[in-house]
Amino acid sequence: MDLLGEWGEFKPAVPVEGGSDMNSWKFWHGFFSQIEWTEPFIVFVCVFHLITLLLIISTKGYLTLQCILGASLLGVVYLGETLNELAALHWREFSRHQYFDSHGMFFSVVISLPILLNTMLLTVGWLLSAASLLKDVQVQRIKAQARASQEQGKGDEKKENNQEDTKQSTNKKGGESKGQRDAVRNRKARATT
């Protein structure tokens, strides 16, 4: 089935009226069967998406680099309509077939959709990283509270020991200890009876 028009123009495999048939398997099978997957341009696009995925995975700990990557990818999607129009004008310079239709179907499905999936993966990675950091902060806070309560408990013991030491030192009168004073009291009590 030749789905390329007279000028190599990308024609839908199934006529789409109002987008109703876009949900059918036949439409998508026809759409993807029109693409010549061995064409260097298409191979480049696939390799680009694969390298982007590998970059997202390998730069997991580098937030700044991931932000630049994510912003660049979203910029490509944002400029998709303009890029599609430019590609439609200059398709002969990089492709054997005119894939870039006026509706932007090829650009949306083959270029923008994988980019959006990659940026979603990037966002999920950021959310998981944020959740992990939040968990670490909570654990550190709990450990700090436990240390503070232990130090407070040790501080209370030290206070009690200091208070006992202070009592013992204040109970001494003229060099006598409490035990000596008790002995003196006992002698006085015996003498009066």
Detail the poorly predicted runs. Answer: none
**How helical, in percent, are the residues?**
over 70%
The secondary-structure class comes to mainly alpha
Number of domains: 2
Label the overall shape: rod-shaped
Task: Give the integer mean of the pLDDT values.
Answer: 79
In terms of DSSP E residues, the strand content is under 5%
Termini separation:
131 Å
- Count every helix, treating DSSP H or I runs of 4 or more residues as helices: 6
* Element-level helix/strand string: HHHHHH
Radius of gyration in whole Å, from Cα?
40 Å
Biggest beta sheet summary: none
Brief write-up:
By secondary structure, this protein is an all-alpha fold. The chain has helices at 25-34, 40-58, 63-78, 80-89, 105-171, 178-192.
Architecture blueprint of SSEs:
Elements: H1 25-34, H2 40-58, H3 63-78, H4 80-89, H5 105-171, H6 178-192
Structural features, described:
With 193 residues, the chain is mainly alpha-helical. It has two domains: 20-141, no CATH class; 144-192. It contains six helices and no strands. The chain has helices spanning 25-34, 40-58, 63-78, 80-89, 105-171, 178-192. Helix 2 packs parallel to helix 5 (105-171) and helix 3 packs antiparallel against helix 5. The radius of gyration is 40 Å and the shape is rod-shaped. The model has no long low-confidence stretch (mean pLDDT 79).
Task: For the structure shown, list the relevant keywords.
0% strand; TMEM18; transmembrane helix; 71% helix; 2 domains; 193 residues; 6 helices; single chain; mainly alpha; rod-shaped
